[in-house]
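Researcher: Here's a chain I'd like modeled. Treat it as a single chain, no partners, no ligands.
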Amino acid sequence: MKQTKVFHVAAHDGYQLEVKIDFPPNSKSIAVFCQGSGPNTYDNHRELNGRHFNYFDLFADECCRRGIAFCRWNTRGCRLSDCAPDFVAVNEAEFSTYCPETSVQDILTVKRFVKALPAFQHSKVLLMGMSEGASLIPFAAEKCRDVAGLLLLSFSCRN
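Model: Modeled as a single isolated chain. Structure tokens:
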């Protein structure tokens, strides 16, 4: 049975990241997920044709089914909201600190945080990025020696 926890983690510059982890019992790996560009939350709650869903439930459920914990966080300046269709509230001043350099540092902060948790101290870390996140993950991986793999979900518009 999947468990879920939300943590507040201080980033390198003191910004408080809101981190969500879904995990099965005795997970041997954890996927640290970096989102694409724009305002995103750790759920990316959406409404489509009157149906409500959390975008990342699909990833979390499938990872947990395979024995892999799934970790993600709110983009800087973004919080969960009740307002459709995107269900995200944006603090413009905090969102202005969201850029590639801080995003790479946030990936590293979250990776260090999960590795310090007793449940994941011996877990393999997979860095997973989608869209812009797939561009940022290699920069974070370059600064780590304890990453077991990269999962990059993106496309290339040029050869």
